[in-house]
Design brief:
This protein is an all-alpha fold. It is built from 13 helices and two strands. The protein has a two-stranded antiparallel ribbon. A hairpin with a 4-residue loop joins strand 1 and strand 2. It is elongated, with a radius of gyration of 27 Å.
Length: about 375
């Protein structure tokens, strides 16, 4: 009986002493070796260690997101790259966005493993690999959304001479990869900034907690580079696009009053533009999800550098990180729901998905024939 008591804490059963000791000692970062403790900021050490069940739930969520992203983005890349009807310059940007989303998916197995170990496996090296993948995919996806907005604006506002050709599209895609590199290489090489664990200490991102001017300037610059500039470009091009769409709708209303002068060529152009507008709506939906997914994370980083850090608990910082991953998984399914030509290809190649979509080109041709036939009596009269 005496063996079940402890001299230093009085008459408490030994198992209860273990629980008490665990509650006192197990703060965030407790299981990271001393030689790697420098990678954990003191802010995280002030919080109690997260329950292992939270880690397991997070691993389950990321497993589902990984499977969803792999299937969805894999199908997007497969169909857009092999279908003749989708092999256009504009759709090269869709493939590029899917590649960035898949790159974000590649880091998910690292988080799943980290969640079971409850610390970043590989320590600084593992943290760097995780953050590099997240940085390239996040910044690259942001600027790719801006390029897609530019392409939609050019295609719809200037349908005859404004379309981007494949050479220009290739250059723009190369530009998106170049854009993602500076704020990936600099912290990876520790030239400016560094990658550190955050949240549950099983994910990694750039350091936004170190309280010095160098870190604060870095956070401000990466905020402008990866969030503010793409967001400004996207808002500008979509505002211009919606202006062009409104102008087109007014033109259609005027043409409706003069049905006798509506020709076969004009009807084809209208049908084609209707398809392009649907595609633009898809692009805008993805942009909206980008805003919803990345704005909370931008708020977290700016708060860490310039605001009240007490707001940033481990759970509060993990929620925006999960939102970013969710966006990369939803993107391809938005195309499956709304993109007319992609849906038509899904119907042909994967009929078991139950997608029903008429071929936009056949619809355009049938509409043209109908208009021609309806205009014939007027001509005879």
């Amino acid at each position: 009986m005496a063996a079940n008591y402890s001299d230093d804490i009085g008459p408490m059963a030994y198992p209860m002493k273990l629980v008490s000791s665990e509650m006192v000692e197990h703060m965030m970062g407790w299981n990271i070796p001393e030689e790697h403790q420098a990678m954990v900021h003191a802010h995280w050490r002030s919080f109690p260690s997260v329950s292992k069940y939270y880690h397991f739930i997070l691993a389950l969520i990321y497993t589902m997101l990984m499977v969803t992203s792999l299937i969805g983005n894999g199908i997007v890349i497969w169909i857009f790259s092999t279908s003749k009807s989708l092999r256009s310059a504009s759709n090269m940007f869709v493939i590029n966005l899917a590649v960035f989303d898949l790159m974000m998916m590649i880091e998910m197995p690292l988080l799943i493993v980290n969640s079971f170990y409850q610390y970043p496996v590989g320590y600084q090296l593992g943290c760097d690999v995780y953050a590099i993948l997240g940085s390239i995919s996040g910044i690259g996806g942001a600027i790719t959304n801006a390029v897609i907005a530019f392409d939609r604006y050019k295609t719809i506002s200037c349908p005859l001479d404004g379309r981007i050709n494949k050479v220009q599209a290739s250059l723009l895609i190369a530009f998106t990869w170049f854009w993602s590199m500076p704020f990936t290489i600099l912290p990876a090489m520790k030239v400016w900034g560094r990658f550190v664990p955050e949240g549950f200490l099983t994910t990694c991102s750039f350091d936004y907690f170190t309280d010095d001017n160098d870190t604060k300037v870095f956070v401000a610059c990466i905020f402008v580079w990866s969030y503010a500039i793409p967001m400004t470009l996207i808002c500008y091009f979509y505002s211009q696009l919606f202006g062009a769409v409104r102008l087109h709708e007014r033109m259609l209303q005027e043409q409706a009053k003069k049905m006798n002068v509506k020709s076969l060529a004009s009807n084809k152009e209208d049908a084609s533009k209707s398809v392009e507008i649907r595609i633009a709506k898809v692009a805008f939906t993805i942009f909206f999800m980008f805003v919803c997914g990345w704005t909370p994370y931008a708020f977290v980083t700016m708060t860490g550098a310039y605001g009240d850090r007490n707001l940033l608990t481990p759970v509060a910082t993990m929620i925006p990180a999960v939102c970013c991953k969710i966006v990369s998984c939803i993107d391809p399914w938005v195309y499956a729901i709304n993109h007319p030509r992609y849906r038509a290809e899904l119907q042909k190649r994967l009929p078991w998905l139950g997608v029903r979509e008429q071929d936009p080109d056949s619809v355009s041709n049938s509409n043209s024939v109908t208009t021609t036939q309806s205009s014939t009596p007027h001509a005879e009269a």
